[in-house]
Amino acid sequence: MENIKVIVGLGSCGIAAGANKVFEKIKALKEADNLKFELKKTSCIGMCYREPLVEIVDDNGSYLYGDINEKKAAELIEKHILENEPIKSYVVQTDLFETPDKEFIEDQVKITLRNCGYIDPEKIEEYEVRGGYRAIRKIAGQRISRLDVIQTVINSGLRGRGGGGFPTGLKWKFANNNKADEKFIICNADEGDPGAFMDRSVLEGDPHAVLEGMIIGAYAIEATGGVIYCRAEYPLAIKRLNIAIEQARENGYLGKNILGIDGFNFDIYIKEGAGAFVCGEETALIASVEGERGMPRKRPPFPAESGLWQKPTNINNVETLANIPWILLHGSEEYAKYGTEKSKGTKVFALVGKIKRSGLAEVPMGMTIRDVIFKIGGGIQNDKKFKAVQMGGPSGGCIPEHLLDTIVDYDSVNATGAIMGSGGMVIMDEDTCMVDVAKFFLDFTQKESCGKCTFCRAGTKRMLEILTRITEGKGEEGDIEKLEELSYQIKDSSLCGLGQTAPNPVLTTIKYFREEYEAHIRDKKCPAKVCKPLLTYEVDPEKCTGCTVCAKNCPTDAIDGARKEVHFIRQDDCIKCGTCYTKCKFDAIKIY
Amino acid sequence: MRIARISGKKITEEQGQVDVNLLDSLIEKYKDKKGNLIPLLQGTQDIFGYIPIEAFEKISSEVGIELSDMYGVVTFYAQFRLNPVGKHIIKVCHGTACHVQNANAITDALKESLKINDGETTEDGMFTLESVACLGCCSLAPVMMIDNDTHGKLTGGQAVKIIKNIKIKESN
User: Fold this and answer.
1) Is the C or the N end of chain B the one with fewer CB within 10 Å?
2) What is the nearest CA distance from B22 to chain A, expressed in angstroms?
3) At what angle do helices B37-48 and B67-76 cross, to 10 degrees?
């Protein structure tokens, strides 16, 4: 039994699904019977839809068990460990036999997520065993020059994974060109895009990969200081980063004359964000690190010339940095083997919304969106009809069904009107109202606009007012054209990416789902039955049993009917709150 | 614009009883550091749960930051609060994934059950209800976080039940 390892996934999503309880249960059982197997922790492996996950590794191989609760955990100990009989029906992934979840894994290529779910993120040795810190050791050992490191990153074709898609190697080159007594490298971990969580997962699951990426970057551009700007909403990521930084210092990866490279002095500290989406923008982020309101600044000068404290500064996203050690270790050709002509390597997508297998999937660039959603993601929940996939968050757009064969690379996704962004894919089905989605994003960007540029500040507000009117049944002819006009004005007159892209969700939904806007405006109907003021609630006389539950719960007493008789909703008094619909046990309330 | 988030109430009676001496070690730590304003404010909020007016004045006079600069920063970032909060903070996620999985139903159910609006605190000072942009647990949508515990795949009814369980624990 000493050879058996039991590994529990303890990422934020695992913990939310109850993984801590499972871990404690296994620990208690182990201690109670003095069992000799090894109990370990890891982070998110990406199969969030099966959390909590428990992996058991024995002499035959690895078995990943999904949907484990305390009761099932006890069964696993009993059957698999004590009786050596794996419980096949609970297995979601193994190399030993076919599992229903095989499709989720088989087409993925794990570079960014190479260690997530495999190592204990709080132990530096586990990172080192899997090739960690070997890239920076190789650079130090073979005296690889700064320019050669930068050239390798340029040759790999790696582009900024935060959404901009700017070639990372070039960015480093610019920062290297500007000489100064102090320079900074900043890791942008302010993952503000609602619906994307790959950065959180990397920080929680493999923090040392990000640190090593920063250390290599610092060497390349001769940075003297490093900052990780992390969202305060990610307490677990911050905790694990702090542990990792401490361990890196103890092991000589941070500090003075790192790994014997003369004059290479570099250290990293964490700066907690205070909640502002606009701080994902480089110059706003710098203002925030300096302790000011996170408002974007005019470029040029670009941060590579004058950034944090007016010193040359290079900013890379978490996912970008996590790729760096792999590229330096395996070579640029190996990385560029994956992908398309202009988008190399892999990209992590967060599959969420109305999808069967939601979680994180890392795929080579060039895969079709259809394959990502229907093969890896397993299609739509409850086998409903696919309507659209939202990519790029508040800066992105909705891609409809007829464009599902678009491949994932920066340029192809841009051509649809959406953007690659940080890699959030929110899948929407026939029950999602596209006008409501556009309103949702405008509400977000309107609140998050810093207020510096008039069109972004006031324009998004006006757009939101029009969209709100439309969803309340007060839409007028000409509203769509007004939205389009305002959109182009905001795009043209905003300083930073937030304003320049804020209208995208509206423009793409108008482009691909214009008929839904028209149904709201002309027919005063919401085809997806989401916008409450546009709905009509009626009692189905065939199904109504006269139980009176709807009438008792109606807040405006708009339902008439005696016990055991068919009820009736007085439309004039109905406020369309939907209470009757949720309370009826006989499915007798119909929505039109 | 971001400033619209600040609620109207300003000075309450509780704010008269703030022990500003609790700030001494925090001020000592950050006094001479560059870019110290946000960490100072975050530290203050960790101590009091919000940023009392007395703390503004003390930090301003001892660190030499203009009150107007401080107010500008506090009102810019979503994290900072100018009013006291309840013992438990309920953060209902309204990210995209939660929105399409009907996060509004969670907020509505909690509003009804706690008899407060979004951003308000219950009369007994037990709960504060907040909406947040994204908690990063999108695959478990819809999600809410109470203090540091995240609860996923919720319905309105389940959310209310979790609150009731906390109430029961508190009354014991």
Assistant:
1) C
2) 21
3) 70
